[in-house]
């Protein structure tokens, strides 16, 4: 009864609550307008790429009018992409290389991050500095020495060589990320599991991994996207047509005297699909991993 009286005799509060959205509207627009502009700048090229892949090839470079905006749309560019090029082989190649490389990176980064998070040793500060320093080094300067070294090991023009390079490139950042996630897990959980007789591997797989699962997803998605977008090493290391990845295959679609822009746009749409699907499926885990440790209770 008391609660009903308080609610019923508070017209000022009710009026303030009803008016508060109107009062906040100008302030909201101050933030929403720049956000909308940024969103348009990001989304428009993707929409234009997909729309151009459906237009007739001879009309892509022409202007669009209200009468021609939806005329002649078809999947002809996609059909020519698979009929006239080896793009159908490039997609599985990229998925194999990036999939295996991502799994290896996640496993190595988890184990290395656990060591940096849980163990104390004299060279630990130096190891952290080296991991950070690798992110400041442009990878283009590594191509020549790595190429010569892999030539001696007969790893050129093979998936194994490219996977090793991708794992070496993505592991330092993945290790730093995993170390941060693992630091958020109390060490008392490790000690309790060890008292019960658990080994280090059991602690990682059955105690730690379920708690830092959003972090593992974040590392996996970050590594996969970095490998999927990589072009330079794949272009230099893979010379066989049957081993080329998607990014190298798209570069080969640009001709010296002319380019079929419909085919290029169709290939670009298909190349973007795996990362879009992966992000859509794991977005909740990814956001949770990015915000993990941001708030302490």
Automatic annotation (TrEMBL):
UniProt topology in membrane: Multi-pass membrane protein
Name of one Pfam family that matches: BPD_transp_1
Gene3D superfamilies, per the entry: MetI-like (1.10.3720.10)
Residue spans of biased composition, Polar residues class: 1-13
Localization terms from the record: Cell membrane
Coiled coil: none
Organism domain of life: Bacteria
Location of the region described as Disordered in the Swiss-Prot/TrEMBL record: 1-21
Keywords (A to Z) from UniProt: Cell membrane, Membrane, Transmembrane, Transmembrane helix, Transport
InterPro entries, alphabetized: BP-dep_ABC_trans_perm, MetI-like, MetI-like_sf
Residue span(s) of domain ABC transmembrane type-1: 91-282
Transmembrane segments: 29-51, 90-114, 126-150, 156-182, 203-228, 261-282
Protein family membership: Belongs to the binding-protein-dependent transport system permease family.
Protein name, per record: ABC-type glycerol-3-phosphate transport system permease component
Protein's organism: Brachybacterium fresconis
Phylogenetic placement of the source organism: Bacteria, Bacillati, Actinomycetota, Actinomycetes, Micrococcales
């Amino acid at each position: 009864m008391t609660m009903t009286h308080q609610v019923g005799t508070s017209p000022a509060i009710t009026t303030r609550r009803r008016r508060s959205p109107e009062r906040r509207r100008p302030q909201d627009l101050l933030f929403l307008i720049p956000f909308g502009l940024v969103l348009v700048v990001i989304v428009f090229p993707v929409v234009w790429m997909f729309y151009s892949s459906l237009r007739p090839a001879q009309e892509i470079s022409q202007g669009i009018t209200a009468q021609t905006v939806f005329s002649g749309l078809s999947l002809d560019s996609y059909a020519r992409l698979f009929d006239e090029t080896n793009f159908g082989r490039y997609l599985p190649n990229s998925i194999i290389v990036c999939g295996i490389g991502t799994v290896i990176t996640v496993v190595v980064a988890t184990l290395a991050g656990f060591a940096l998070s849980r163990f104390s040793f004299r060279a630990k500060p130096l190891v952290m500095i080296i991991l950070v320093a690798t992110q400041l080094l442009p990878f283009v300067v590594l191509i020549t020495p790595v190429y010569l070294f892999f030539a001696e090991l007969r790893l050129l023009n093979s998936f194994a060589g490219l996977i090793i390079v991708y794992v070496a490139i993505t592991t330092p950042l993945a290790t730093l990320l995993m170390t941060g996630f693992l630091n958020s897990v109390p060490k008392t959980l490790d000690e309790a599991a060890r008292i019960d007789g658990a080994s280090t591997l059991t602690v990682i797989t059955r105690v730690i991994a379920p708690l830092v699962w959003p972090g593992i997803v974040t590392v996996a998605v970050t590594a996969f996207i970095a490998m999927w977008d990589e072009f330079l090493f794949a272009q230099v290391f893979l010379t066989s047509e049957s081993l080329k990845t998607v990014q190298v295959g798209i570069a080969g679609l640009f001709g010296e005297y002319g380019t079929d822009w419909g085919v290029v746009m169709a290939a670009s749409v298909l190349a973007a699909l795996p990362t879009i699907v992966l992000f859509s499926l794991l977005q909740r885990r990814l956001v949770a991993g990015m915000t993990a440790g941001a708030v302490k209770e």
